[in-house]
Design brief:
This protein has 184 residues and is mainly alpha-helical. It contains eight helices and no strands. The radius of gyration is 19 Å and the shape is globular.
Amino acid sequence: MEIQKDAYREEAYELLAVLEDALLELEQRPDDMEIISRVFRAMHTLKGSGAMFGFDDIAGFTHTIETVYDLVRSSNIQVTADLISLTLAACDQIKVMLEASLGRAKVDERKTAELSAAFHRYLPSEEPASAPAVSAPAAPPEPEAAAQATYRIRFQPHRNLFANGTNPVPLLNELRSLGECSII
């Protein structure tokens, strides 16, 4: 498992370099969807691979950041200089977390919480999301139920799947987001 953790750390440092470059480009072109997608993918990979290899602190920390950039991708949030600065600070915090996993640094949990809270402020509040749900029952659910289908997907990965950094967890999570899902 330690070899896999080392592989994750190496990938994470590479992703952070890509992420920092993308963020600097994003400062110049805040509406460039390709750059926004690169930032999102880097955070998505840091989160997913982190969870898979036992870096739960990094996975938890990057989850909200990934969600914010998903909202940026869907044009619900605009890129600002503050968001870019906050994301660069998050990159530095992730580096500290990686170093701490090797015993070379100590994570300032207060700083992690402050950064997480700052990203949470970009997320829409729960109240507006629940308001449309009240008016949603006007549409009858029966046509949806009639359109349901059941699929059986068999996935048999190569035994060296994890050795090259491949992460099946995001695929499984995406399948779960499509509807009722049973994974065996």
